[in-house]
Design goal:
The complex is a heterodimer of chains A (157) and B (681).
Chain A lengths: L1 H6 L1 E9 L2 E6 L3 E6 L15 E7 L2 E7 H4 L12 E6 L4 E6 L1 E9 L3 E2 L13 E7 L2 E6 L1 H4 L6 H4 L2
Parallel strand pairs in A: 2-11, 5-7
Antiparallel strand pairs in A: 1-2, 1-8, 3-6, 4-5, 6-7, 9-10, 10-11
Chain B lengths: L3 H27 L4 H21 L2 H18 L7 H22 L9 H12 L3 H18 L6 H12 L3 E9 L6 H15 E7 L2 H5 L6 E8 L3 H9 L4 E8 L3 H5 L2 H18 L7 H14 L9 H28 L2 H24 L1 E3 L1 H4 L2 H12 L3 E6 L4 E3 H22 L3 H6 L6 E10 L2 E8 L6 H10 L5 H6 L2 H7 L20 H11 L3 E7 L3 E9 L4 E9 L2 E6 L3 E8 L3 E4 L2 E6 L2 E7 H4 L11 E9 L2 E7 L1 E9 L13 E6 L5 E5 L1 H4 L2
Parallel strand pairs in B: 6-8, 13-22, 17-19
Antiparallel strand pairs in B: 1-3, 1-4, 2-3, 5-7, 8-9, 9-11, 10-11, 12-13, 12-20, 14-18, 15-16, 16-17, 18-19, 21-22
Helix pairs in contact in B: 1-2, 1-4, 2-3, 2-12, 3-4, 3-5, 4-5, 12-13, 14-15, 17-18, 18-23, 20-22
Classes of the chains: A mainly beta (157), B alpha+beta (681).
Chain lengths: 157, 681
């Protein structure tokens, strides 16, 4: 039983924000798009981290800038900037990240709860951290990162 | 047998047959003597029985079987159609519907039908002798007259035309001797004689079966000839090994000349007879004859079933095509290659046609909603002890599937309301000098980009005083406001929430929660409901709906670099105003628009698009409305009118101020759709 758990791995997509690496489960990822190939339509009156909507093969998909969501300094989008399209239970959202180029298997038992201080990312967004070789990967809790925007004023903290 | 793959088909078809059953039952109630209708019902029930037995739903099969027995007895005039019988049959069909729905929802389709079965059994057995005798004599005549053969429309026409041209039409029944050895040869000889004399229209059994000797020892031939009966008979008798040849004129000829309705009855009646006579030899005969007729009536309307999801997928794929078309167009414009231009233009035209077809495929006649109402009204009228005649006009009007799915319940509410609160009881009606039977008209029609559905009754109408009293009691309006309201406004008060004027609450039309729900449902569909009412003369509920929820006409407007879409349904007109026309009224900028003071709303401020750098001399405004209220929306410029596909912003963005959705423009970009209702208070 224990060995089974030890051997269990989670396939994740790893992306970069600023100087940190984050991971989300591969199952929720629908596709990864190049931001510069997309035209984002701004939506007025929503929190600033919602950059707008894009036309993703006929589907209108909202786009969230993760740097902005985590209160990290924003930067100009460049050729590496990617939109990771994730399918959550009720909706699809695109996440703007600096770069996404890795798929890593994380053994389930390598996941630890978040250390007291993990930088500026609010703790409720983090599901745990994993140390793989010399890399520290932050697993995101997407349900918290992407809480539906109901009342615009209440969510804009 | 694995029947799962057929389940969907079974459900669809069962519903169709039940619907047919219901419609015909209502017809039958109006014309209880029309046996053609009984036959229609019989056929529907029979098919249903067959299907459900195959699928293993025994209760359905059992009940339909009993229904069939009763129907069979009716069409053989063993029993007469009475409203008690119809009630039981109606109830049975309700039970069947329940079972089918149960199956659809994953149930077993089981239901206790014992009571209904017993009732049906009783009906089948319990005939009032007096009526039966009278009926029987009548019926024997028809049976005698036309015994033997069923003629389809075509054959009838041929025969009646021949008769008009001076030919005779005979049914020739040839009986071969039992010891006849070469039956096919004898048949051939008979045919040879007949073909010389005239033209053979029909044989029973069919020619192929005769040639293969697949018959007992008799067959019937229908022939059109100039020769007399005796002459023909004598000729046929010359063939050896014949027992005898009976000849008689084709029977329906007199009926065929009469009106269509009687013809129907006449042809329909004998259908059962051969089935009985030749029950062992030809059990499928009734079916064949019936199926043939139904085929001929439906052949003009060939359809296949397509899952709506597939149409959605098709639509999405097509939208992508439109986007690529847009790109292609701009590439072609850059390259200026004549051949490329030509091809692109052709593609544009073709995809335009394709778009129309795809959009039209999603359109469904409103009939699919309307057809359940006659039965509902019948039942309600009985429950309420009122006499009501429901008229349906324009059931063929088409609406997008998505709207159709939503509109059913609100309409049920409205109809219940009209029946319960609108139409008075027969006694009251007579006292008011109206006909005893109330008329409720359900009407659907297209007008512009909208579909109108109207429900009109000739009942009591809205009682102004009573409605106002209630409205004030419930705090919906104040005394002061109440006096200034127009009759129309008063009538529309009954749509407000928490309102119920019926002095006696009935379980028919709710407890005042009904009509406001209707209003909000209709508004959520982008529609509008209004009431016109004349006290003592009746009311008219008018529901205005967009043709489709997924495709709407919009005016595209530009604000700085951004493009927004304003639904045409809320636009009154567009105008260009001068700065000098703008007035300031108590912190609110307004304009004078055709004598009305209209508040000015600068969309560029609301949507944060930024204002143009230079001071504008002229402003472009779109005048929009919500109900009676207007607003003038200021934009940079108008781009033009366009049909767009409405897309929701999804569940992540659950409520965004003043936006109702988004659409994808020809160039692949997303444009947001302005929700004018949110901008007007």
């Amino acid at each position: 039983m224990t060995t089974e758990l030890e051997n269990k791995v989670m396939k994740t997509i790893v992306f970069q924000l600023l100087d940190k690496e984050y991971a989300i489960e591969v199952d929720v990822v629908q596709s990864i798009e190049k931001l510069l190939l997309m035209t984002i339509t701004r939506i007025p009156g929503v929190p600033s981290y919602v950059k707008g909507v894009i036309n993703l093969r006929g589907m209108v998909t909202p786009i969230v800038d993760l740097r902005n969501r985590f209160d990290l300094p924003e930067m100009e989008y460049n050729d590496n900037t990617r939109i990771i399209i994730v399918n959550l239970e009720n909706f699809d959202v695109g996440l703007i990240v600096d770069d996404a180029n890795d798929v890593i298997d994380i053994p389930v038992n390598a996941l630890e709860s978040q250390p007291e201080v993990v930088g500026s990312v609010e703790s409720e967004f983090v599901a745990g951290v994993a140390k793989i070789e010399k890399r520290l990967l932050v697993m995101l809790n997407l349900d918290h990162v992407l809480r539906p925007i109901r009342n615009v004023n209440a969510d804009e903290n | 047998m694995d029947t799962n793959q057929y389940l969907e088909m079974f459900l669809e078809e069962s519903k169709e047959h039940l619907q047919a059953c219901n419609e015909q039952l209502l017809e039958l109630e109006k014309n209880p003597d029309d046996l053609a209708i009984v036959n229609e019902i019989f056929r529907a029930a029979h098919t249903l029985k067959g299907m459900s037995a195959t699928m293993g739903y025994e209760d359905i099969a059992n009940l339909t079987h009993k229904m069939e027995n009763v129907l069979d007895a009716i069409r053989n005039s063993k029993i007469r159609v009475t409203s008690e019988i119809l009630d039981v049959v109606f109830e049975s069909s309700d039970a069947l519907e329940e079972m089918v729905i149960d199956i659809e929802e994953g149930g077993t389709g089981k239901k206790d039908v014992e009571k209904l079965v017993t009732m049906l059994n009783q009906i089948e057995a319990g005939k009032s002798p007096l009526e039966a005798v009278v009926e029987k004599t009548e019926q024997t005549e028809t049976v005698e007259e036309s015994a033997g053969l069923v003629y389809d429309d075509f054959e009838q026409t041929v025969v009646s035309q021949s008769i008009e041209q001076g030919f005779h039409a005979f049914e020739l029944k040839v009986i071969l001797r039992d010891d006849c050895l070469l039956k096919a040869a004898r048949v051939f000889m008979v045919f040879e004689i007949l073909e010389k004399a005239g033209e053979i229209i029909k044989t029973f059994p069919t020619v192929e079966r005769l040639e293969n000797e697949e018959f007992d020892n008799q067959f019937t031939v229908v022939i059109v000839t100039k020769e007399e009966a005796e002459e023909l008979q004598a000729k046929v008798h010359k063939v050896s090994e014949l027992e005898k040849a009976e000849i008689r004129p084709v029977q329906f000829q007199s009926a065929a000349m009469e009106t269509a309705v009687t013809t129907e009855t006449q042809i329909a009646a004998p259908v059962s007879t051969p089935a009985k006579q030749s029950a062992k030899k030809e059990p499928a005969k009734t079916e064949n004859g019936a199926a043939k007729r139904s085929n001929s009536t439906h052949s003009a309307n060939k359809t296949i079933r397509v899952n709506i999801d597939r149409l959605d997928v098709l639509m999405n794929l097509f939208e992508e095509l439109v986007i690529d078309r847009g790109r292609l167009q701009s590439i072609a414009a850059e390259l200026q290659n004549p051949e490329l231009n030509e091809t692109t233009e052709r593609m544009t035209r073709i995809s335009g046609d394709l778009q129309n077809i795809i959009l039209n495929m999603r359109m469904v006649p409103v009939e699919t909603v309307f057809n359940r109402f006659p039965k509902m009204v019948r039942q309600l009228a009985r429950d309420l002890d009122k006499k009501i005649n429901l008229e349906i006009i324009g059931a063929e009007t088409e609406l997008d599937r998505t709207v159709i799915d939503e509109i059913g319940d609100p309409l049920v509410h409205l109809i219940r309301n009209a029946l319960d609160h609108g139409v008075e009881s027969p006694a009251e009606r007579i006292a008011a000098g109206k006909p005893e039977e109330g008329t409720v008209t359900l009407r659907a029609y297209h007008s512009g980009n909208h579909v109108f559905i109207e429900l009109e009754d000739d009942g009591a109408g809205v009682n102004r005083a009573r409605v106002l009293k209630k409205a004030i009691e419930r705090g919906i309006v104040t005394d002061e406001i109440a006096e200034t309201l127009t009759d129309k406004q008063v009538a529309e008060l009954i749509l407000s929430s928490g309102f119920s004027t019926a002095e006696k609450l009935t379980d028919v039309s709710g407890r005042g929660v009904g009509l406001d729900v209707v209003k909000s449902t209709i508004e959520s569909l982008g529609g509008h409901i209004s009431i016109e009412s004349k006290e003592g003369q009746g009311s008219l509920f008018q529901v205005q709906l967009p043709l489709t929820l997924s495709i709407i006409s919009v005016m595209l407007v530009q604000m700085q670099k951004e493009i927004f879409a304003v639904p045409l349904s809320s636009i009154i007109e567009t105008a260009i105003i001068q700065n000098a026309d703008i007035l300031n009224a108590h912190n609110q900028r307004v304009i004078d628009f055709r004598g009305k003071i209209v508040p000015l709303v600068d969309l560029r401020e609301i949507f944060d698009t930024g204002l143009p750098e230079e001071q504008e001399e002229l402003k472009s405004v779109v005048i929009v409305r919500k109900g009676e209220n207007l607003a003038a929306l200021v934009v940079d410029s108008f781009i033009g009118q366009q049909e767009i596909v409405l897309k929701s912003l999804g569940n992540y963005l659950q409520s965004v101020f003043a936006l109702s959705g988004a659409t994808i423009l020809g160039n692949g970009q997303v444009a947001l759709i302005v929700d004018c209702n949110a901008l007007i208070k």
